[in-house]
Amino acid sequence: MQGYDTLIVTLPRDYVRCRASQKRLVDLLPGDQIIYVGNAEIGEFVSQEVFGNRVSSVLEDSIIPFDAVHQIVCDILGSKDVPRGVTGWYYQQFLKMEYARSCKKSYYMVWDGDTVPCKAFQMFDGTDGRPFFDLKTEYHEPYFVTLQKIFPHMGKCLKKSFISEHMLFSVEVMCQMLDEIEQNGLLNGVTFYEKILRCMSPQELLDSAFSEFETYGTYVTLRYPDMYHYRVWHSFRNAGAFLDPAAISEKTYAWFAKDIDALSFEKADELRDDCRNIFDNSRYQERLSARQVLEIAQEEFKEGYIEVWD
Fold first, then answer.
1. What CATH number has the domain spanning 4-232?
2. Which one, 45, 68, 97, 194, has least CB within 10 Å?
3. Which of these, 145, 73, 61, lies nearest to 98 by C-alpha position?
């Protein structure tokens, strides 16, 4: 099995929101080292935890300076007062991509800092050693509009989506992809991230019209179709509207784990009074599976991403 590290690119507010679950991430995420990537505050948080030698942190500006990306975004939008969150959407993706150029191993995994695994898992097939792409069901057309500007002969190639809150990257293929973008003289800019940003209109940029997961997954599938296995991944994207991450018991995680691989606690989701005591209700857990409860809840609360089973 290949050796690789796992990056958790996160913001202080995301770290704090899921602070009670950070030890669970460290215990269950696969790979050799767990590396938190963020600002100096993230480094302080990690240094204060009792995580052991498996965990370290890297300052995000040592990979790509935030101000370099922010300046490009401000230039495209014609304003010096662009909210940092607009740039941040792209910046965290570019960090995950650029890390390939300093990685000393053949692969690395990235994991969204607002997502908590329900159980342990592996990212390489135990039989033939090939890595996994974990797939969900989602489609956001602007991602593919931008993709086709970067790689004109590529487009959506699978029915499912590569966006599953994590991904295992091949260092060699990621570096090849970044080099190809930078060597494309038809794209404006110098660095891969400038070329990606400048191929979008101001409105597209504001619409978050780029996905590193969809771009890399499509690139690999079309260029190296036998490199990865494809695996269905189920996650509860809107868990933050129903559950307090600091109050989830191991019993509840074990119940979830039979049907669901991970729970996400996105910043836009707040625990709602009318959603409490649904997924952590012991009577429901005794009678129904996590899938059944989630499908019932999604019929009642239709906001946000809908998880589906084939």
1. 3.90.550
2. 68
3. 61
Tokens of 230: 């494809």
pLDDT(301) > 80: no
Query: Position 125: which residue type?
Result: D
How do the domains of the chain map onto residue ranges? Answer: 4-232, 239-261+269-300
- Alpha helices (H) along the chain: 12-17, 22-28, 40-48, 66-77, 84-98, 141-150, 171-182, 192-198, 202-206, 212-223, 250-257, 282-287, 290-300
Tokens standing for 81?
């007062």
For the cut 60, the answer to whether the pLDDT of residue 123 exceeds it is: yes
DSSP string of 58-87, one letter each residue: EEGGGTS-HHHHHHHHHHHHT-S---HHHH
Tell me how far apart the alpha carbons of residues 290 and 161 are, in angstroms, rounded to a whole number.
22
**Could you report how far apart the first and last alpha carbons of the chain are, in Å?**
30
pLDDT of residue 138: 86
Measured CA to CA, the distance from residue 308 to residue 305 in angstroms comes to: 10
Q: C-alpha angle with apex 239: 25 to 35, nearest 5 degrees?
A: 20
Q: What is the largest CA-CA distance in the chain?
A: 62
- What does the pLDDT read at residue 302? 67
Other beta carbons within 10 Å of 18: 22
In one-letter notation, the amino acid at residue 38 is: G
